[in-house]
Amino acid sequence: MDPFVFKILTTAAILRAASGGVIPTFAGPWNAWVERFTTCSEDDKRIFLKISHFNPSKKYENQVWNGFMNVTVEMDDTWWSKGVLDVRSNNQWKENAFVFFFPKNGCSGAREILTEMFSKYFSKKGTPCRLVKRCVYFENTTVAHEYPRFPIMPYGYYRLKITAGVTGAQEPQYCLNMLCHIIPKIGS
After folding, report:
1. Across residues 50-63, what is the average pLDDT?
2. Which among 181, 164, 144 is positioned nearest to 46, based on CA atoms?
3. How confident is the model over 143-182, as pLDDT tens digits?
4. Which of 1, 10, 15, 99 sits in a 20 to 30 Å window from 50, CA-based?
5. Which of helix, strand or coil describes residue 16?
6. In contact, 85 and 99? CB cutoff 8 Å
7. Rounded CA gap, 79 and 102, in Å?
8. Where is the secretion signal located (predicted)?
9. Do 166 and 99 form a contact (C-beta atoms < 8 A)?
C-alpha cells in the first residue's frame, strides 16, 4: 500500500475514533438545571430556596440547594396532583407542552415521578402514600435532577407549574412554579 494513502486512512481512523459520539440537538437523554423555584402567590411564604447558578464550564455537576419547604397540610392518596410544562419558543411561552395529571392517587403519582431527593420525604414505596406536615430544610444539599420515567425530553427552556389539592376541591392547597433548562446529557 502506498505510504501516503496509509497515512490518510490512519489519520481518518484516528479522527473518527477521537470524535466520540454524536450529541443530539433536539431531544434525547437529558440533565436539568433549575433557575428559580417559587410559590404561585407572593403571599405564600412556605418555600424559600436559593439554588446554585448554572456554570457552563461545569454543566453536569449537581446543583446545590439552600433554604426550606414548609409542608403545612398533610397529603395522601385522596389528593389530586397536576404538573404543567410550558416551553419557551420564539420569545414566548408555548403553554401546556406537557401535562401530567393524577385525578386520584396524587401522592403516589408524585412519589413515582419525583427524584430520589424528594421521594425520601414521602412514605416508603409499598405502603400507603403520605407526605406529613413538617419543615424540610436544605443546607448545601446537592440535587440530581434525574427522572427515570422520562428518559428522553426535548431540550429547551421550561416553566413548570405544580399544583395539588384535595379531591373534589377546585382550589389547590399547594402551587409551585419552577423555571428550568433541559440540556443534553453527556456520557449516556
Report:
1. 86
2. 164
3. 888 787 888 889 999 999 999 999 888 889 999 999 999 9
4. 99
5. helix
6. yes
7. 9
8. 1-20
9. no
Sign of the Cα torsion 162, 32, 133, 101 reads positive
Q: Measured between alpha carbons, how far is 126 from 117 in angstroms, rounded to an integer?
A: 18
Residue 89: the pLDDT is: 92
- Measured CA to CA, the distance from residue 88 to residue 159 in angstroms comes to 8
> Phi and psi for 113 in degrees, rounded to 5?
-85, -40
55 vs 158: CA distance, rounded Å: 18
Cα 148-87-106 angle, rounded to 5 deg = 50
Asked if residue 98 has pLDDT above 80, the reply is yes
Pull the grid cell for residue 58.
461545569
Decide: residue 175, CB within 10 A, 0-12 exposed, 13-18 middle, 19+ buried. Answer: middle
In sequence order, what E strands does 40-170 have? 47-51, 63-71, 75-76, 79-89, 92-102, 130-131, 134-143, 153-154, 156-166
